[in-house]
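Notes for week 9. Today we move from apo structures to complexes. The key idea is that a small molecule is not decoration. When we ask for a structure prediction with zinc ion present, the ligand SMILES becomes part of the input, just like the chain. The input block below holds both the sequence and the ligand string. Read it once before you look at the output, and try to guess where the molecule might sit.
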Amino acid sequence: MTKYICSVCEQQYPVTDFLFKCDCVGLLDLKKYVSFPLKKIIKREPTMWRYREAIPIDSDKNIVSFNEGMTPLIDFSYNGFNLRAKMDYIFPTGSYKDRGSSVLVSKLKEIGVKRIIEDSSGNAGASIAGYSAKADIKCEIYCPDYTSKGKLAQIQLFGAKVNRIRGTRADTSVAVLKDAEKIYYASHNWNPFFLEGTKTAAFEIAEQLNWESPDNVICPIGFGTNYLGLYIGFKELLENNVISRLPKLLGVQSNVCCPIYKALLTKKDNIPAFPQKRPTIAEGICSEKPIHEKLILKAIKETSGAITIVSDNEIKKGIKVLAGYGLFVEPTSAVVIPAIDKFYKNNIIKPRQKTVLILTGSGLKATEKLMKMFVK
Ligand SMILES: *Cc1c(COP(=O)(O)O)cnc(C)c1O
Ligand SMILES: [Zn+2]
């Protein structure tokens, strides 16, 4: 049986307990068993749930799913690089967050939760709200005031209540933590079941490459649900001898809010808060203080990974480059293009290597912003 286990004091709790952190304030991990019966897996429907034995939901009848996942992995070349784009913007609510929401909301259904709160700059809120609508769970989403109107409309149309909080993303977190004392906090950042969903991207990439690791995977990183999902996923594949090595996991931050980048530069063994002074078009990765700091640093070290930063101007060029290949993404996702040049300059990636870019969110999510940027 799957159990919560505290990452600090190792206290265990049943997953039926309504908690999001340990009594000692430590983050909760999962004690679980996973396996990869490849012969069975390849015969199943092409969704993220084909890796069923690796997803810790006890009973199939609790699965809340739109048959999402197994997104395309397509070849393209840019600046002489041999790239593959993982089209993780093709999901029911428009972002890869649906991987995490499908598993988290399934678990909520399994343990009988009927009402939840969650905080998000937009995509996670829209995703949790969409899956809650399917599971008939009452949902309230806390968002920063500046969140795109389109994302707010999406959340409200799914029937969730929106609480707009003045100030930064960090102020939104403070507001939700206060109410989390009374209502189940279905946090995509705290709750380990969310990462049990995002990890399926690693399984799909490996399967799409004939059960091999790419050399590098580049993705945006804020709180790290994408980055850590990849780390956990590739690690489980390695531990089960499905792949023979881990890819380098390469994260990209905005230069306006880059706590992880800075912690590495200054060789810290934690990630100090990085107060954000200006807005950026990469609104999805503005996390002043990632809560999984220890795990992120461990993942970087263990995969020989790295973090780089990019500016809004570079992101704008990235949007155009991707759109030139027919790949329509929101600004946050386009950080991966300028990152290629930076990782190359720092000798971290090479043109001939297999490099996968994770495209996390649909351009249709940011129509307003893209119009302001590109339509005269
Ligand atoms: C949430 C999100 C990210 C990154 O998520 P973190 O978990 O904060 O690292 C990247 N791109 C998009 C489009 C997102 O919605
Ligand atoms: Zn503890």
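The mean pLDDT is 95.
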